[in-house]
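pasting for ref
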Amino acid sequence: MFHLIFSLPSWYVIARFLIPLALPMALKILLSALVLLASQYLLVSRLVSGSFISPEMPRAIIILFNWAFSTVLFLALTQMLIDGVALIAWLFRYQAGIAPDVRYLAALLAMALATVGVYQAIRVPAVKDVTIEIKNLPREFEGYQLLQLTDLHITRLFNVVVN
């Protein structure tokens, strides 16, 4: 049931983005199948490795699935924005047709946002050194160093060697 919720944006993308495009039907069907597959990333991860938290698929496939999943979500959001603008125009009795170029730009924007998002997710975070001065600190504590690790999701996405 959980994975069906994630396919709702995919159906919206298919109905409101793909079907109106002036493409051959075979290509629309193929793209629709890819959109639906992308929406099932969490299910595929669970079936392959038992969890989407620590997927044990090859790194390139995980990155591709995350990019495709994010692209579908961003494309659904941009399409909702386009539909919202068209609805407002319709309410004011203005017949606003959605030009095909707007849909292609929405797709490019969605892919670019997904690319940036996945890149940010897989890069190793920078180390930030912070010096904290504490008044009246006992001498035996001078020079202490603390390390804080927060919310790390180390999976096969990271090329980190742990000794």
